[in-house]
Write a structure and sequence with these properties.
The protein is an alpha+beta fold. It has a domain of about 35 residues. Strand 1, helix 2 and strand 2 form a beta-alpha-beta unit. The mean pLDDT is about 90.
């Protein structure tokens, strides 16, 4: 089990290692909600009010 509390800007090598964790399923982002791009204002409001736990995703389709 992994817990990522924050990160610093590393080099390309570190980025590739983290991407491998995502690909292997060893690292999974916590997604609170997904909004279509046209509802970006609603997503922003939810974030500003701290009404989320995890990431708020905007879907561009």
């Amino acid at each position: 089990q992994f817990s990522l509390m924050g990160s610093f800007m590393g080099g390309r090598g570190e980025l590739l290692k983290v991407l491998a964790f995502f690909e292997d399923g060893r690292l999974k982002p916590v997604v609170d909600s997904v909004f279509p791009l046209k509802e970006a204002a609603t997503a922003q409001t939810k974030m500003e009010k701290s009404e989320h736990f995890g990431k708020i995703v905007l879907k561009v389709s």
